[in-house]
Amino acid sequence: MADEKSNAAAYWSANVRLITGCLIVWALVSYGFAILLRPLLSGIPVGGTDLGFWFAQQGSILTFIGIIFFYAWKMNKLDEKFGLGE
Amino acid sequence: MSQFAINLLFVGASFALYIGIAIWARAGSTKDFYVAGGGVHPITNGMATAADWMSAASFISMAGLLASGGYANSSFLMGWTGGYVILALLLAPYLRKFGKFTVPDFIGDRFYSTTARTVAVVCLIVASVTYVIGQMTGAGVAFSRFLEVSNTAGIWIAAVIVFLYAVFGGMKGITYTQVAQYVVLIIAYTIPAVFIAFQLTGNPIPMFGMFSTHSESGMPLLAKLSEVLVELGFRDYAADVSNKLNMVLFTLSLMVGTAGLPHVIIRFFTVPRVADARWSAGWALVFIALLYLTAPAVASMARLNLMTTVYPEAAGQVENYEEAMTNPIRYEDRPEWFRTWENTGLITFTDRNGDGMIQFYNDGNEAFAETAAERGWAGNELEVNNDILVLANPEIANLPPWVIGLIAAGGIAAALSTAAGLLLAISSAISHDLIKKTINPNITEKGEMLAARISMAGAILLATYLGLNPPGFAAQVVALAFGIAGASIFPALMMGIFSKRVNSKGAVTGMLAGLGATLVYIFTYLGWFFIPGTNMLANTPDNWILGISPLSFGAIGAIINFAVAFAVSKATEEPPQEIQDLVESVRYPKGAGTALDH
Question: What is d(CA B50, CA B286) in angstroms, rounded to the nearest whole number?
Fold first, then answer.
């Protein structure tokens, strides 16, 4: 029982760590690159405009898709590793 | 065949398809009605979620907003897609594991309180109904334009169609009709975009064409667009915004609103396994992104096309625009599509300086006034409504009539699919959460189904009535729906999963505080219940607290919700042990299969 409990707790903290990492990337591409850090990236040209503009209208969306699939893949592996899958 | 007959053919054929699918997939038991038997594949579910999510606002107005605002309106793109990351990481898998039918089910059980359930039902109904009003209005506009009927008739036709397949099909009907609607709307959106991208840049993929070279001038397309706009006193297309706080908060509001909207969340109850809920959110975003990555290309290309239609000589110019700008087209030489849209009143021309030519520029820009005066211009002469951009796009690019028919079917599919999903969320909240769980627990399964159908019919009538007499601009109403969902439902769900300490008192006061603060801030600037003239302050950036627009306030409301819920929970008792065990069990996928068959 105690083992089961500490196993579950380890699974949950691994999940929370993974979520935190994913959300940092999520915030970095949208609130960071596309909005707040855009002036810093203005020197990098992308097809007639700058990198910040590209992140605002294309890059952030592409990154969001990547984050969700990465999380799903990683979580399925965690489910298996901790024996808590279906 | 006339354009009218072609539109009728396309819209009629797509309807026959949706209704046919709804009849084929008629729901049998209550569980089928709400969640399609829990047996929908993640890719199918992702496609249906995408159709559910992309409303008339995404299909018809978003590209117009991007075209007029340029970079500054990127919040719509990031906000309406980034919400899926929150949904996939913080909500969807756990709510699927919880294994009940509705959002108030979770809030009521997790916070062990009928009050919490009822507050959640109220938040859900207010958010959904406001959103449906916008859809009915949008469907009405699309019907009236393409079927050449009055706006009122258009809204009633929409109401009847939604009623038929939502009421008789239930969720299963909706899931498969929405897959069909997704296919129709994505084809309708991308085909004209591909043609236009190829015409302008030689690159047929819109999302790449947007960042490549404009064939006629040899300049990068976006640089070309900005140059033309600046020459006419408009804002540079890529110009940075000065109030970044507001842009951040607006994006955040749209994101948490996305994760809090009940008709999207309910989708994740319909997949077989917890792992599928995770994949489903990813697939939904893939299908949504197909449109959202194309929209900015449609926006920039349509804006450039519009400018070069008025100033034909500007298309091939580089740097020296003086001659091109003083030689716009003559009003009598305007193209055919221009005339068609003039009939709807959405494009208007007033010859202010009486020279018979169309001067289209920004007369609100004081720095540009001198140049305009030198050129003998007496004010902007052309008004173009943003919302016509996507619908007029194929006509501007001279595409064949069947493409226009396709756009008609696509726009209507977008509005109807979202309206149907929202109506399902409303009806299940009333029949399941309010009647079965609160008022009359002994209701039979048949009685519950009947109540669901009656409340759906009631919700359609209410939304149709409000769609005929909308309480404000569609964009304001939609933003309110997002603010309500983001400030009330999202924080309660998230705390219910990630904190064992938040108790019923905390959740109820948090939801009420978040909802209340958001409504008060919005009504202060837009009028109480949107009644014109009842606002206490003028809706201008100078009056906004820290420059935060009422549209961005949902994010602040969500923060207030979290803060109040934690403070109140801290000061009161811990939740009972069985609730802490429930939170624990929601966190692990193991045993999800049995949870659904309760």
Answer: 9
Any domain includes A61: yes
- The 10s digit of each residue's pLDDT in B41-70 is 888 888 988 988 888 778 877 888 899 889
**Residues in chain B closer than 8 A to A22 (CB atoms):** 85, 89
Tell me whether residues A30 and B286 touch, CB distance under 8 A: no
Tell whether A86 is covered by a domain: no
Token pair for A69: 């699939």
For A15-46, write each residue's pLDDT tens digit: 999 999 999 999 999 999 999 999 998 888 88
Domain of A53? 2-81
**Among the listed residues B336, B382, B374, B329, the one whose alpha carbon sits nearest the alpha carbon of residue B356:** B329
Q: Which chain A residues have a beta carbon less than 8 Å from that of B221?
A: 47-48
B441-449, Cβ contacts within 8 angstroms, sequence gap of 24 or more: B445/B29, B445/B30, B448/B30, B449/B30, B449/B33
- List chain A residues with CB under 8 Å of B82: 26, 30, 60, 64
Comparing CA positions, the residue from B565, B414, B408, B587 lying closest to residue B495 is B565
- Which of B82, B223, B285 is closest, CB to CB, to A48? B223
- Residue type at B226 in one-letter notation: S
Residues 6+ apart with CB under 8 A from B539: B525, B526, B550
Return left, alpha or beta for B377; rule: phi > 0 is left, psi -120 to 50 is alpha, else beta. Answer: beta
- Domains of chain B and CATH, by start: 3-303+396-596 (1.20.1730.10)
pTM for this predicted structure: 0.90
What span, in angstroms and rounded, lies between the C-alpha atoms of B87 and B101?
17
Instruction: Work out the minimum CA distance from A53 to partner chain B, whole angstroms.
Output: 7
